[in-house]
Amino acid sequence: MANRPMLEIVSLEKRFGPNTILKKIDLKVAEGELVFVIGPSGSGKSTMLRCCNRLEEPTSGDIIVDGRNIMAGTRRDLDRMRLQIGMVFQGFHLYPHMTVLKNVTLAQRKALKRTKAEADARAIDMLEQVGMAHKADAYPGELSGGQQQRVAIARSLALDPKVMLFDEPTSALDPELVGSVLKVMKDLKSKGMTMVVVSHEMGFARETADRVVFMDGGVVVEQGTPDEIFGAPKAERTRAFLSRVSG
Amino acid sequence: MDIFIDQFFNIEIMRKSLPLLLTGLWMTLQLCSAVILLGLIGGLFVALGNMSERRWLRFISIAYTDLFRALPPLVLLIFIYAGLPFAGINISPFAAVVIAFLLNNSSYYAEVYRAGLISVAKGQWEAAQSTGLSPTQTLIHVVLPQAMRNVLPDLLSNTVEVVKLTSLASVISLSELLYNAGMARSVTYNASPLVLAALFYLVLLWPLVRLVSHFQRRLAA
Ligand SMILES: Nc1ncnc2c1ncn2[C@@H]1O[C@H](COP(=O)(O)OP(=O)(O)OP(=O)(O)O)[C@@H](O)[C@H]1O
Ligand SMILES: [Mg+2]
Fold it and tell me: What is the pTM of this model?
């Protein structure tokens, strides 16, 4: 991909007390690219994603989204820039006291200041895209995990983000529900969305990822195409990890 | 038996004291509204202070809730009404009651809010803020509604306590329900006005305590 970079992680460092969790990470994600991140538990994958929208405050380094540094600017600027960075969590985190439709319109109304009509129309579009429009009036508690996750994706998409970050989006799902969420993500990729996905779904990575990044101990150990990483990993640590997860 | 009825359930005396008691009831309702409304607002800010990342704010709010939950409300009331004039500060009985019970009550509300706020999963904050909502918007639209729903029985119980608490205002001769009932009793040499006042409290609070039980059962389910 020769496209311009949509997300640049520059020399990102994160410390929790005495522990350095991310050690000067550099990662560029091009427009429309899907980067798939793997690595053992505790290697810092979630922390890296969470630093990308400053849910976790980086200790040092820069996060540049479509040319703008989200580490610069005021709290207001941060709220505005977060609109451009969609985030999907392992635990969905839909708002349980609101209908599906309200879940998808809330930030459109309050942060983007769209009118109710605009927000509703956009929400229905997005819910259709993830196959959940028929549940617009349901409450999250009435949905399966897979359905909740698709609504959560629609909630992010409705804000027209430039990048979508997924932190183990299918890890909390029953196996038979995983496919519906992965399909939505695949559609998204084919529509040209820039995506960073932390996941254990290697099959999805082989099919959909442009690049696979292997992290361990807070550094990027190795990266390459799915074929390179899964077929012929160079680093010993990558090989050890892959043989462990493929059982 | 006749003497009992005559002393406690004398309809004629109740009828005569009714206007006085209604005036008292009105005052009680005004006191309750002021203390409950201000308490609900003040309590929220104290609770937010308690959960702030700023150490000094946490310190102030913890000191506040500890102090005003530990001090007996009657002591607080008499101090504000009868003690402060020694410092040249004179306050109307109404204001004294509102301030004293507000200090007491907002600390209880604050503790209830705090329990409610920490009952809302951290993921709710993160999801809302990752969609560009400001911390205040997140609090108002996402966290607070869930927090309040989770502690609704406690908020209501606390509100019941406020209504009962206002009867203490009679000790500084504020003409609320209990004080006026006492007046009627001493004028008529008959306890029926007190019984009537008790009935008023009952009618006011019984639906509320029922509601508390109802919500408690629903939350437990
Ligand atoms: N808030 C925190 N305070 C202290 N340490 C933390 C905090 N969050 C994460 N860590 C530590 O940072 C390290 C990396 O955590 P992280 O969640 O990023 O790993 P991960 O690669 O996502 O792991 P997993 O695959 O289990 O999700 C872990 O050792 C974790 O204990
Ligand atoms: Mg993780």
Answer: 0.88
